[in-house]
Specification:
single chain, 531 residues, Cytochrome p450, three-stranded mixed beta sheet, three-stranded antiparallel beta sheet
Amino acid sequence: MPPSISLSLLRNLVSSLSSHGFLLLKLLLLLSGAFAIACWAWRRFAEEKNSPPLPPGPAGLPLVGNLPFLDPELHTYFATLATTYGPVLKLWFGQKLGVVVTSPATAREVLKDNDATFANHDVPIAGRAAFYGGSDIVWNPYGPEWRMLRKVCGLKMLSNHTLDSVYELRRREVRKTVGFFLLRAGSPVNVGEQMFMTTLNVITSMLWGGTVQGEERESLGADFRQAVSNLTKLLGKPNISDFYPSLARFDLQGIERQMKGLAKRFDEIFEKMIEQRLKMQRENGSESMEGGGEKKDFLQFLLNLKDEEDAQTPLTMTGLKALLMDMLVGGTDTSSNTIEFAMAEIINKPNVMRKIQQELETAVGKYNIVEESHIPKLPYLQAVMKESLRLHPPVPLLIPHCPSATCTVGGYRVPKGSRVFVNVWAIHRDPLIWRDPLEFDPERFLHGEGNYNGHDFNYFPFGSGRRMCVGIMMAERMVLYSLATLLHSFDWKLSEGEKMDLTEQFGVVMKKKKPLMAVPLPRFSDPRLYE
């Protein structure tokens, strides 16, 4: 055989072997992959077989789960489902698993026993759009940055010492509101809207020293309240983009677009205030700002904190504006809605109003103006506030939590990444816990019950655990002082023929569906008591 032919055969043989070897290698790799997947699936099956089951819940549809059946009033819808499926139940929001807990025992498991696991909130796209990518206290993941923000708010901005130092701001705005109602005595006024404006002016005074005066007050107050209301409503609205991440870029409901538009309005205010303050610093110089000319408000404190070079966790400008957003949005809507609900319940129960006014006359007198120093002497009024918060908690489902690991609640498996709702609204109305739960009865809180410390899981209107509301002391002062002043200065009633409507409207922050239009009637003839 010629050498050239044998060499050609040899090459063909090697090529053939190489081809078969490559196919064999591919086959081995495929078999290895299939074996690995089978082992993983078997291990997952064994783990799930030996682990607690998922909670029970209503049947859903393929792909969409329970989304088509959701009632817009989620707090009442979830409470109704709990009567059928128990204190821990599940719903599928598209690809997202939702878990609802509706008893003191299961709430304790989430907020105390497994507090570290549930320390993060489930951040919706709307929350990222409104709060600078989730850089604020509410949405920031638990960690060094969140702890820094919490410390700044809790110890520096909203401590009792700081709140004492800005009492005159609260007093000034509440007295202006008394004057506003006096000018409209005998005619119906929108109580919630005016108390929103009062709270807004208090908070902006604390933040950067600015308030809204004169004719601009009423028009801007209504506009600003609508913006905050729309923002909280969007935060509470189920969003397809959250439940189908692959569809998020299409923003099918327009929630992200709407939220960005609202957030831009707030950001423009913050940018303006920050630029004005930085300009003031440049013009006055650092020495002047360190002396008697330094602004005594939260914005200046935050700007000074941002410039600290040795801070372990520095405050960024984004974080600064996110904190301003928390204060402005969280502080106004919750407090004014609480005042509005309390006033509605009080007007609806004339005997409750009489008891409050009798207590005020004993503690304050008929010839004095209410001061915050009188509040500790008003136990019945404090009970009224607690009872109003029981029936109408500001955040009825709290902010949804998101477990960082799979855990067990109420004997059921709650997978990592679920959206977990704590239905505090339903717990506060549970007939197994509360006598006549739908009745507005402040007497139930007259003997020291109902603390806001988050340890009592029968009553926790401000939440519990690491993510408990940081603004409790501010809210308590604002609500009690406002109620005391309004009820000391005026009698209140509805217009002739009107009936009280206490219907709630769900949102991340719950509000009264129909605004409270009430008629103020001056109780005293001395004009000095209305200055």
